[in-house]
Amino acid sequence: MSITKNQAHLNPKPTILPAKFDNETVTNHASIHYLESFKQKIHFRQILDDHFTYEKHHNAKFSTAETLEFIIDAAIQGYSRFSHMEDLRKDNGYLKLKTQAPSEKVCRDLLCQLNSRSRSEARLVNKAILSGKARSEGSRNVAINIDDTVCTVYGDQDGTGVGYNPTKNGRKSFKEKIGILETTNELINLTLEDGKHHTNYQLETFIRKCRLLLPDQWTLTRVRIDCGGFDIDNLTYLDKNDLEFLIKCKKYAGILTIIQTINNRPHLYPWTAIDDMFSVNEIHGQLPKWDKTYRFIVIRKPAKVKDEKQQSMDLAEVKYDYQVIVTNIEYLTAEEIFHDYNQRCDVENKIDELKEGFAFDQNSRRNRDANEMFLLLKMIAYNLHNWFKSAILPEEWRHCEIRTIRRKFYNLAANICGTGRYRHIRYARDKAIENLITAVIDRLRRFQLAAA
């Protein structure tokens, strides 16, 4: 048989499948139904209705609470831009859940209409959510990590300024200050500030608000701050309020003198090796214009050698890099203080998750107040998701970031089938998905919100 006769079999004609556009059950967000069940159990809509007092026009199709809840749902699902929220608004699964959702314009207009009172109410909504979580989990002592991050803006926006910007030098930016709890990572408070502001700008006020916004069941005992918060006024405030603190020191002349004193008196201040890299020391001292003596923990590590062929001086100040931590904690060893302060470093990872997962660095509104309100709604979305993750998702999911959870849970495609009591979700035949969803349903059935 010749090749010519078999030409049709060797080069088959490509098959192009026809398409139909009549399916009203498939959804990209089937698992949001379980988040909705969790919100109903914690009375989330009631919390919004009780706290937000702004009333839209009498003939408005969507109430303030309905619109804000949609924005929060969209933030959890990963829609950071208003134009992208239209995808969720038109999703079959979300429409079966809510019947209808507000448009992009409705969301934009509401954020511009809300005032400073509404921003205070948003913080109280966040506190109400954390209070529910605290009642379910019980009382505990907590430590808070405070840090800020630079958010570059593109275009002309109110409230921005040219300050320190590590990625876009000379560009206008916002400075976002956050207070987040260690270990469980609840976001307690945040502010949107001028890019020129330093960490120390109204820091005492920020800490005071964090204490007020904590649930009654949680007692703040410790505060960790980077060197931006190294100021005697902050130390005095924390001391007077019986709060333990660990604050990294700026290398002022007084701090350099402390380092020099330790190096010049090795018989009085011997170094203790932590590992092959770090060593610690401690000294009690009082800087000029201070009224009290504090404990300083000094950490050193070998300095990086730029050119091994270049001759260097055999001086401790040159051979090592130093960092100094000031604290009022006396019952921990210097090494324990070092390790405890290093737990603050996890806040950097959380800031990255907030930026990449909840678009905290995206401030698209011209109006600063609208940007801060949108940011506060993202904070509520983050804490709501964080509670859902810890209470409902399986144990091994506790350390997963939001992008992983969206990919493996929130954004699973499925069909919403049936009506009324017979409504159910049909996922793909996959054992991992079956085990996950079965566990989520079981934990939802057993979850009970503790009484106030």
Give the tags:
single chain; 452 residues; alpha+beta; nine-stranded mixed beta sheet; three-stranded antiparallel beta sheet; 12 strands
Itemize the secondary structure elements and their pairings.
Blueprint: H1 7-10, E1 26-27, H2 32-41, H3 44-51, H4 64-77, H5 82-89, H6 92-98, H7 104-113, H8 116-137, E2 140-152, E3 173-181, E4 187-194, H9 203-212, E5 218-225, H10 232-240, E6 244-248, H11 253-264, E7 272-273, E8 279-285, E9 294-302, H12 316-319, E10 320-327, H13 334-342, H14 346-358, H15 368-391, H16 402-410, E11 414-417, E12 424-426, H17 431-446
Parallel strand pairs: 2-5, 5-6
Antiparallel strand pairs: 1-11, 2-3, 3-4, 6-10, 7-8, 8-9, 9-10, 11-12
What would you say about this model in short?
With 452 residues, this protein is of the alpha+beta class. It has a domain at 26-116 and 365-446.
Q: Could you explain how this protein is built, in words?
A:
By secondary structure, the chain is of the alpha+beta class. The protein has a domain at 26-116 and 365-446. Helix content is 42%, strand content 17%. The protein has a nine-stranded mixed sheet, sandwiched between helices. Strands 1-11-12 form a three-stranded antiparallel sheet, covered by helices on one side. A hairpin with a 6-residue loop joins strand 11 and strand 12. Helix 3 packs antiparallel against helix 8. The longest helix is centred in the last third of the chain and has 24 residues, at 368-391. The mean pLDDT is 89.
